[in-house]
Input
Amino acid sequence: MPGGRRRGIQFSKLYSFSCIRSSFDDDHSQRGQIGYSRVVYCNDPDNPEALQLNYRGNYVSTTKYTAANFIPKSLFEQFRRVANIYFVVVACVSFSPLAPYRAGSIVFPLVVVIGATMVKEAVEDWRRMKQDIEANNRKVKAYGKDQTFHETRWKNLLVGDLVKVEKDEFFPADLLLLSSSYSDGICYVETMNLDGETNLKVKQCLEATAALQDESSFQKFKAIVKCEDPNEHLYSFIGSLYYDGRQFPLSPQQILLRDSKLRNTEYIYGVVIFTGHDTKVMQNATDPPSKRSKVEMKMDKIIYVLFGALILISSVGSVFFGVQTKNDISGGRYKRWYLRPDSTTVFFDPRRASLSAFFHFWTGLMLYGYLIPISLYVSIEIVKVLQTIFVNQDRDMYYDVTDRPARARTSNLNEELGQVDTILSDKTGTLTCNSMEFVKCSIAGIAYGRGITEVEQAITRRKKDDPPESVVASFGIEDHSGNIEASRKSIKGFNFMDERIMEGRWIRERHADVIQKFIRVLAICHTAIPDVNKESGEISYEAESPDEAAFVIAAKELGFEFYERTQTSISLHELDPKTGEKVVRSYKLLHVLEFNSSRKRMSVIVRNEKNQLLLLCKGADSVMFERLSKDGRTFEVETKDHINKYAAAGLRTLVIAYRELGEGEYTIWEEEFSKAKTSVSADRDALIDAVADRIERDLILLGATAVEDKLQKGVPECIEKLSQAGVKIWVLTGDKLETAVNIGYACSLLREGMKQIVITLDTPDIIALEKQGDKEAIAKASRESVTKQIQEGKFQVNSSRQSHVLSALIIDGKCLTFALAENLENLFLELAIDCASVICCRSSPKQKALVTRLVKKATGKTTLAIGDGANDVGMLQEADIGVGISGVEGMQAVMASDFAIAQFRFLERLLLVHGHWCYRRIVMMICYFFYKDITFGLTLFWFEAHASFSGLPAYNDWYMSTYNVFFTSLPAIALGVFDQDVSAHLCLKYPLLHQEGVQNLLFSWARILGWMFNGVASSVIIFFFTTSSVLHQAFRRDGQVAGYEVVGVMMYTCVVWTVNCQMALAINYFTWIQHLLIWGSIFNWYIFLVIYGFLPPTFSTTAYHVLVEACALIPFYWLATFCVVVSALVPYFCYKAFQIRFFPTRRNEIQRAELKA
Output
């Protein structure tokens, strides 16, 4: 048999809390009811009942569209935008006599704009389809009717099929594990694609199917699985296997989920339970919360304002048209006899002037529709996609250690990066590396380990007057390095230096027996798995957490090497203190009492070679000291002192203890524990906790460990720079208050001279009430205490502000619970907003999300949340912008984020450079769009007024249709992609530039109305200067005045020149692309006019030969164009010159300073 059968770890013997052995509980009674009706006929494809079930196939599609629904669904997406609905209505009405132009001229640009967006959608969906094709065509071995395994494609699998998955292959569907290459049917699974976690999970099959090992054994295998219907719950499964005349309960331990990977196991056999979109990973494939930037939401309001303006001027025009039409027949006389008011249609009927005015109103809505920028939305989408490419390809945000660049996972929020006011950050794995190193320990009341942590270095900098030696001594550290540092090679997870206990010297210490027990606990009390490299013989460890790996590595380096784990034992290479030699010792593993967030501790019960029963325990000091026996507190005072010093040094601590169990005591306890484990009641977990709690008592204290989670490179500098930019930074962490405060100093979140406002419930009064156990009294006193402390904090902040001193708020999780209550949240928020930095300690994931929601809603400013773990997902999704760190804890935070970076320090460049550029580019582009469309649209209105609101457009139909698409949009897109007011270097040198976005200076209503007024002024100048210059004097050499078609061409030429030259004035950073698009757009107008003018007059109408014969040969045409364009640009030029000279912005001052330098 390929790969052979392996005898491995029988994990069913290890875990006491994991439900590896399935048991019937209340949930299984739901089978057969709604939601629990799935029936799977295993290895029985010809069963008629199986054929009738008609379950989905294993083909998976993640595309948004199909060939059948692409057009209707994509059109629906386009017409969710108000502006597009307007243009469709106009396009429909353009086929009626009300239209002032031909229908084709309005339908064409609409088709181009909507078509471009649909093409973009199609391209993105095509990429998704290619990924689907690749996944659906992966190969897997399936059991065929010829009773052998053959390769088949994933998409061909059906429910009930038997498959064989080999090492490092992905599972093609949700499978029921039948057997594996290990003798007891376990396998190791990597679930990074599902939940982002990198540690391996252990799965185990039922004992009844573990013997199914080759093709012949499956010949007679027939079984039925009855289980829950498809759902999104990754960590639950309810069902039963009916096999060989017996019924076996199933649990999540027997289920292998699609897209997870088989690791450290040669092969597994499984049967398909859920396929395709019924698999749990596909059931979880929901879109993240829809987020829109504040700029985009404000843009919608501007569109409504323009709609209002459009209705207003259409109403004005229709009123004037109605009045003049009514007056055309007065006393039987015709005022405008040349219009033949006696023989006309309903659209111009003096006898029904009101009805004519009503129809004219609709004509006006179509005619002045160019006030609404038809190509704005699609242009913004193009610009944002191109901006994300620059973010993704920024080498300064590429992390070569893990080969991870920055990734913009959405393009909707680019400009929002430049408006971030508050950052809410996780600590572990975000500010720190989440790569634990064993650096110090306290054993038998003696501190071991030397060296200064990053937090201690920060404290040294704060205590500049104290010599470094005094600071080191204050943390209980002595210099016992000897020559170890020079000779020792770097070991990941172990940064401990102390010659007193290293290299076996601990046997000479006064408390050698305690040290031996301490190290032994580190080597045994864990769930790590050793992995021996066959070539080098070196041992590495697969652990559930970085802390646990650090402890096992520390034990190995101190003489207790954990090298083998079997189904019932743990084996060590121990240093024998009597002989000084390494000896092999095995410990029979009886129970593992797992760590969880409520227990805050972990224990193992083992039997040593002397037949002694030992309980080895490690846990948080908050739960461990209360479990010590009277005789086990010998070193309690010293150990507590060391723990406090380690916490102050920014280290994570655990207390180490043990006890020896009597045979009778253990027998009674094991019987109770077995009953609790096999209980089928709803409070099974509580029963297990209670029984475990009874054995974890009367412990003997050995010492404490201290591991360091180092700050990521560049974190202090990044936080300092963001603080200079005026960004408020909140850290939400689960650490102790002392640890969080000192980490705050190390990363420059807290700075020398800051006024610290600490809100905590660790007061004598509250502690005394907690000992009494009166919950109502505790809650009342706690609420009053928190309220009082917040009020006092506000007073302190106001006092500090008068002295120009910054404040920092530090609050723990207990206080946060009360501070987030409805009656206190506003008061708490007022205090927090007034502080430069906020640290929330002991925060739960739910509290992180609640705090984020509170800040976002109450301030109305842009919030950014950044984290790296699954516990940060709620916070990332709640914030306006979620940034995921692709770190050690997997990719779940990244999968829930809007932007992904590899290191916290890249946030500086993401916000201060890309955020500043994207914000400025987008808002400038939007303002420019409104300017150019108002300039163009109002020239139509002025001409209408000049022509008695006759409904005649000033321009040829196709001039108007091509205005946005061909002559003005491309320079605006170039502005949105390439413009830079200052370089990246200056963005980082002058971080206060970020406040432009935070205060929304470039997209305030004053700024928007200013651009609109500029458009009005330009339209007035272009219309009146053009008409005044040509209508009352000879234009041609033969003495004729300019006709309607010439006036239209002259005005249109002036508009195209003006709006493109306006772009040239507004732009800050010229590239050859800008030059090409600005001057090329103007040149395109002339090319278009020549080509269009040569078309037959039935199609080109007023454009027929108008440039070649009527305009280009006349010098006055060129002179007038030049004069009108210059005149139209003078107001903006004068305003900018005045503003820069007398009211310079921060950007102007920086540019001036750099020029002088």
Observations:
- The first strand starts at residue 38 and ends at 42.
- DSSP finds 38 helices and 35 strands in the chain.
